[in-house]
């Protein structure tokens, strides 16, 4: 029941279910495509989708229905505040709401679909919370076994100005050397619409998070230093590093909350499978696919 399923397989199942639903609501005589005038009937597409994905899609719907019924039986309500807090954690992983919505669109899922999955996930948490516990001994052991994963990696804080040509990038660099303001030039010249309005600010990132050429240049620069034009698949970048943080070894007390969350998620996944098997035997389920 790892919540990351919602951007992967979960999104695909939602898309399949939606497609089957749309097909069922088409008129019987409607075709879904033609090739040189030869029609492909909706029944052909429906049969293909059901044969390949129908069982998974139906299982997903049955599971969701069980969670819904159990939540109602146990008077569990998920507040809008809880949903918003959970969404905020995803926005942070994708550098903001816009980046997250782009990832959703790429998977064929809408924000409305995702919010429904978040609500189901949070209801599931409440249903299972009394079935799992994490001890101090478990947390300390988990930390020792996974210590390196909690280390704070080397990071830089940077901003950039992106241009289409090397000549434009050189023009920007010349203006910077003449004393013009970086943020003003980003607003005037940068083709990166997501950062030009904020002075080209890219925030803080670790090695490997940017494309290779950009990454190498950014981590080579000293604080306050500006790069020569750096070419990537997106164009030519002028990069300024504003801060640099060295790698820092993790200390248990500093990451205890993260350790607790990791263990909770792991135990939740395990307990979810056990819980679902139990509920499958309790409910009368008729699969007529």
TrEMBL record:
Broad class of enzyme this protein falls into: isomerase
The UniProt record lists the keyword Nucleotide-binding: no
Documented EC number(s): 5.2.1.8
Keyword match Isomerase: yes
PROSITE patterns assigned to the protein according to its UniProt record, in alphabetical order: PPIC_PPIASE_1, PPIC_PPIASE_2
Residues of the PpiC domain: 153-243
Protein name: peptidylprolyl isomerase
GO molecular function, one term: peptidyl-prolyl cis-trans isomerase activity
Keywords: Isomerase, Rotamase, Signal
Recorded catalytic activity of this chain's protein: [protein]-peptidylproline (omega=180) = [protein]-peptidylproline (omega=0)
């Amino acid at each position: 029941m790892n919540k990351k399923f919602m951007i992967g397989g979960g999104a695909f199942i939602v898309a399949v279910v939606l497609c089957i639903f749309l097909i069922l609501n088409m008129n019987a005589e409607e075709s879904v495509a033609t090739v040189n005038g030869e029609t492909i009937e909706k029944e052909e597409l429906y049969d293909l989708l059901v044969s390949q994905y129908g069982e998974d899609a139906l299982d997903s719907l049955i599971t969701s229905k069980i969670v819904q019924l159990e939540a109602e039986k146990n008077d569990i309500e998920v507040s809008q505040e809880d949903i918003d807090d959970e969404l905020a954690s995803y926005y942070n992983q994708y550098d903001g709401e816009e980046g997250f919505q782009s990832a959703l669109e790429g998977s064929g899922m809408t924000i409305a679909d995702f919010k429904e999955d978040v609500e189901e996930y949070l209801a599931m948490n409440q249903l299972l919370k009394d079935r799992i516990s994490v001890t101090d001994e478990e947390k300390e052991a988990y930390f020792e076994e996974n210590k390196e994963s909690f280390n704070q990696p080397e990071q830089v804080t940077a901003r950039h100005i992106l241009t289409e040509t090397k000549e434009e990038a050189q023009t920007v660099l010349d203006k910077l050397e003449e004393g013009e303001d970086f943020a003003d030039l980003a607003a005037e010249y940068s083709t990166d619409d997501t950062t030009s309005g904020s002075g080209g600010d890219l925030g803080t990132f670790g090695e490997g998070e940017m494309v290779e050429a950009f990454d190498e240049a950014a981590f080579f620069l000293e604080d306050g230093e500006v790069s020569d034009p750096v070419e990537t698949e997106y164009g030519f970048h002028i990069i300024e590093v504003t801060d640099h943080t060295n790698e820092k070894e993790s200390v248990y007390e500093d990451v205890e909350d993260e350790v607790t969350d990791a263990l909770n998620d792991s135990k939740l996944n395990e307990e979810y499978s056990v819980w679902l098997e139990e509920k499958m035997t309790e409910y009368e389920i008729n699969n007529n696919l």
